[in-house]
């Protein structure tokens, strides 16, 4: 990295010094999130936020894969970062080569950031998952390497919920089959096996952001809603929580899945679970591809136990668009494609203009806030730590970020280093094996900054030290 911009700083004797020390990875520009009109009025009388400038912003290298929405790209470019955006994921060998020099990487669901990949990412400080799921990243490895991970837990919830609602109606009316038949010139006007959804029961497995929005939409169409979750959650409307997955499967006409990919959800719906479901019921999976045992689904549909299904996610998905959904990718692909009243979509639950734009903003804002100010609010693998922004009235301040092993005695040794200076504010928290400390120190000069950085780097508990000033 190139040296920092020269920034005049006053030392304790008010003599000007030149700031050229470069111990960190953080940009020049300060990122500020949109504020409400109330907070804007309140801030008009307050001092403006100070721009932290450890080095030239063009030195921050960002790699965005899988066609990240332009809203996110624009936010990151506006910070002055060097942004390279690619439309697809990369094979592992190419990804390893690309990731060696980047400080920030943005991905969606197809890029796998494994320990093998991350061990080559010597400059990487933060990962942005421009989606809900984070199972494509080894979160523990990233945390222990001092790499924060952010995602977008809210922005595509409505889009997924609306897709599921459309699939409920389409399955009940066999719309996909009628459409394909007419495309082939076959007129087949039938009512047998076609139903209204009013009065039917929807069973939601996983009552999170998507599940509770879906609950409201389903009730608006006259459906009854039951849901199962591993924690007790307050229901929306008149929905009722049931105590077991079995109870939900036995009581629902439509079952929709909205759970993460974790060991407990692997083949969560398989032969045994299909046995509990009502004859002629329907299954929708817009969560993760490993949640449903696809060969078991094929058998359940062939036997008539399941009247229809909509699948948006798969155990193995192509890296890009094209004629790749075949038995080489998934051995059961041709069996699945042969079924009637089956809606297959290519992982498009969150693929709307609105959702992708919102995801781009949400994740890019979090990335810029972390790079610029060290805030871990919203990180999925780090404790949430945040301090107010330094202001222009605090010109001789430095922000210390110290990520360290969560072992006894570390804070005492860190505070021995910081205690030689005037610590204005400090916050620390831990999560698992990793702890995160942030401190603002006033009345520092270049020599102080260098001394602080080197002293913290020498501590045996260190995972990563960053200095923003």
TrEMBL record:
The UniProt regions of compositional bias labelled Low complexity, in chain numbering, are 20-37
Q: What class of enzyme is it?
A: oxidoreductase
Protein keywords = Amino-acid biosynthesis, NAD, Oxidoreductase, Phosphoprotein, Serine biosynthesis
Query: Keyword Amino-acid biosynthesis: yes or no?
Result: yes
Q: Where are the transmembrane segments?
A: none
Q: Which residues form a coiled coil?
A: none
Q: Where is this region: Disordered?
A: 1-37
Give the PROSITE patterns listed for this entry.
ACT, D_2_HYDROXYACID_DH_1, D_2_HYDROXYACID_DH_2, D_2_HYDROXYACID_DH_3
Q: What is this protein called?
A: 2-oxoglutarate reductase
